[in-house]
């Protein structure tokens, strides 16, 4: 990694940390399920279904006792945010192309296109 690439990475991480702290309303040092719903709505503009939230939490959270609460640490938050941003951008491009420049929240993906979206991002 070159010095300028490191500086760019550092700037990105600082920006993500600010977002993380802004949405960590209870100042626990983690993002919980309720906070994550707000992050996704505000940053990406989507209202996700409870099943989708559960899937995201299973993949990116750490379960802590005693109530088996799912929380997301900063490093996992960055990984999740980068992926969600890339997936959202790919989806929106396809949605807009299919509907004459208007986003409807729906698009059709062939299997190869789906794989390119999830494996390359």
UniProtKB/TrEMBL annotation:
Any one of the GO CC terms: cytoplasm
Predominant location: cytoplasm
InterPro entries: EF-hand-dom_pair, EF_Hand_1_Ca_BS, EF_hand_dom
GO function term, MF aspect, one: calcium ion binding
Superkingdom field: Eukaryota
Sequence ranges assigned to domain EF-hand in this UniProt record: 11-46
Record's signal peptide: none
Alphabetically ordered keywords of this record: Calcium, Cytoplasm, Membrane, Metal-binding, Repeat
Location within or outside the cell: Cytoplasm; Endomembrane system
Keyword Repressor: no
Protein's UniProt keywords contain Metal-binding: yes
Full protein name: EF-hand domain-containing protein
């Amino acid at each position: 990694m070159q010095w300028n690439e490191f500086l760019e990475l550092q700037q990105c991480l600082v920006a993500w940390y600010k977002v993380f702290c802004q949405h960590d309303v209870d100042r626990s040092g983690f993002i919980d399920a309720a906070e994550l719903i707000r992050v996704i709505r505000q940053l990406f503009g989507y209202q996700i279904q409870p099943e989708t939230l559960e899937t995201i939490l299973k993949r990116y959270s750490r379960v802590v006792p005693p109530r088996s609460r799912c929380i997301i640490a900063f490093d996992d938050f960055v990984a999740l945010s980068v992926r969600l941003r890339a997936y959202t951008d790919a989806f929106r491009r396809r949605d807009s192309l299919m509907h004459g420049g208007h986003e409807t929240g729906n698009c059709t993906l062939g299997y190869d296109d789906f794989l390119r979206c999830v494996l390359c991002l």
